[in-house]
Amino acid sequence: MRRALALAASPGVPLGPNPRVGCVLLADDGTTVAEGYHRGAGTAHAEADALAQAGERARGTTAVVTLEPCNHTGRTGPCARALVEAGVRRVVYAAADTNPVAVGGAQTLRAAGVDVEAGLLADESRALNRTWTFAVEHGRPFVTWKLATTLDGRSAAADGTSRWISSRAARLDTHRLRGQADTMLVGTGTVAVDDPALTVRDEHDVPLPDQPLRAVMGLRDLDPGRRVLDDHAETVLLRTRDPHEALAALRARDRQHVFLEGGPTLAAAFLRAGLVDEVVAYVAPMFLGAGLGAVADLGITTIADAFRPTVTDVAVLDPVEAGEQPNLRLTMTPAPRPAPRPAPTPAPATATVQHDEER
After folding, report:
1. Which residues, in sequence order, are CB contacts of 315 under 8 Å at separation 6+?
2. Active site residue 35
3. Each residue of 80-135: pLDDT tens digit?
4. pLDDT, tens digit, for every residue of 121-156?
5. Which residues lie in Pro residues bias regions (predicted)?
6. Does pLDDT of 267 surpass 70?
7. Is 318 helix (H, G, I), strand (E, B) or coil?
């Protein structure tokens, strides 16, 4: 199974929209007959890939697969039926396929007399496809909120400037994480004020060939000259301020992993809605003392109601340019928190600086 997991994670395999799957066919003496893995939507599934390599040698083998064989016909045929027809006598799979259009593979195999065992290294398989699994089981994309902040929690100075708070090493690392998502999400305010490209770029600031979808959320129209509307990637405007509606629209496009890079108002909206599944914070060793906060009002009035994510990883990003200092990257998982106490009546709105996602 560990070999099957390694095959599933082969370099160059897309992270979506299909799960990454590996398969190893074993003879009775434990020797490998054939191996296969899924290379992305429209290509042969892992089981079909291994069966094609094995040919007649597949008869009587044990198939070790990282995901329950599918039971439906899409661009390719059902893997459960292919295993039966190839004469595979036993199937061991890691994680169950919870996709409602593909479930039932194990049942089909058992009904045909194939010996089936489930659950071997299931957690490892789910981790390999964590955003696909999350999207299938929750009916919405997994959301990673990325922020860059000073030691005193500022994302921009008092005059609105924010270029650059984080180091070049942190920015390069951000592009690495962007490349793991299939959607970049900001608000119309960020597009209007910051004019971000929202692309994944290399160390020379050149956009890579494969780009996530750029999603802009809000009610205002976009200036046609904004960089987010260039031809480096596809862009969609989500005409809503509701995070639930935005994620539903993205899920309808088969999106599984949203990388949230909007300003403090949009971040607060997702946090208050309980729709942030991972937080990645880049912390620079500087103080501004005033300026824009990293997140807007969360309705928290007492320390007991504080938003307290669990830290899962801490990394020091060493400088890659002269004159810079190391930055910290904190990766965190939000934990359920009590509903905030009623907030006091807000003061009249004042003019905003950059990142106002509701404008």
Report:
1. 328, 329, 331
2. no
3. 999 999 999 999 999 999 888 778 899 999 999 999 999 999 999 999 999 999 99
4. 999 999 999 999 999 999 999 999 999 999 999 988
5. 335-347
6. yes
7. coil
Phi, psi of 118 (to 5 degrees): -125, 155
- Reported as a single tens digit per residue, the pLDDT across 186-217 is 999 999 988 999 999 998 889 999 899 999 99
The active-site residue, picked from 35, 47, 261, 357, is: 47
Residue type, 133: T
Please give the model's pTM, rounded to 2 decimal places: 0.85
Secondary element (H or E) of residue 16: none
319 vs 210: CA distance, rounded Å: 27
- 315 phi/psi in degrees, rounded to 5: -135, 140
Q: What is the DSSP code string of 196-214?
A: -----B-TTSPBPSS-PEE
Query: What is the reported pLDDT for 340?
Result: 42
Instruction: State the alpha helices, DSSP H only, in the chain.
Output: 2-8, 46-54, 79-85, 105-111, 122-128, 130-138, 168-178, 188-194, 243-252, 264-272
User: CB within 8 A of 12, min separation 6: which ones?
Assistant: 39
DSSP string over 119-187: -TTHHHHHHHTHHHHHHHHHSS-EEEEEEEEETTSEEE-TTS--TTSS-HHHHHHHHHHHTT-SEEEEE
Which of 137, 264, 246 has its CA nearest to residue 194?
264
192 three-class SS: helix
